[in-house]
Each structure stands twice: as C-alpha cells, then as structure tokens.
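FAQ: What does the model actually see?

It sees only this:
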Amino acid sequence: MTPDQLITQFCAEWAEPDPAKIAEYFAEDAVYHNIPMDPVAGREAIREFITGFISAFGGIDFRVLRQVAGGGLGTDAEQSSGVVMNERIDVLNLGEKVVELPVVGVFEITDGKITNWRDYFDMAPIRSVMGGE
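And it is asked to produce this:
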C-alpha cells in the first residue's frame, strides 16, 4: 500500500472509529500533534488520546478536499515511505451542534506506518460551539 492509499484508508476509519484499530496505523514511537495543543508521543498514548477524543466527539467525517503525496525514497510506486498532506473539512458532532473545521494534515510515513502526524487548524470554531469565544 502506498502512503497515499494508507492515509486515504486512515481518514475513512474516523467515520466509525475504533481507537485500537486507528492506533495500529502508527509506528510504536510515532508523534501526533494537533498544533494548537501539546504533542502526543507513542502509539499507546495516541490510542488513549483518540479514545478520549472519540468519547467527546464520536465519529468524525474527514472530508478530504485535496491530497498530495511524495517525498519517498526511490521511484517504486508501491513504496511504503513518504509524506502525505491533505486539506480537509473535519465534521464534528457536538450533540445537536455540528462543527465544520478546516484542517491541513501532514503525515510522515515510514515502512507503512505513520511516524508523525501534524494537524494545523484554528480552535475558535470548536470553542464557539462549546460556549467559549
């Protein structure tokens, strides 16, 4: 599976999420960083974070608008390492309220596993729905 295919499959998993299954996409020493928050390091810590996130928001519809992949070594189309970036709208359900959150994700893949995942977004849409700003 190419990095592009891996991330397409990974994003689809979030619609009906299973934290253990999602965590298996990550390398043991992976780092997941939602840029407005502190990074989470290690597969088990990522699984725990995802479990908490899902308990708050349930499934998330990752509407991928654009996705590009590259940066791997060599020219083999089936290579298992590289970088994938996507522009998405993450649709979060907060009870009767829905948040459509613009996100840019950067995924680094090594040997078929996510080693680094960074999501760049503004927390203001979530805060406004949750009674913050």
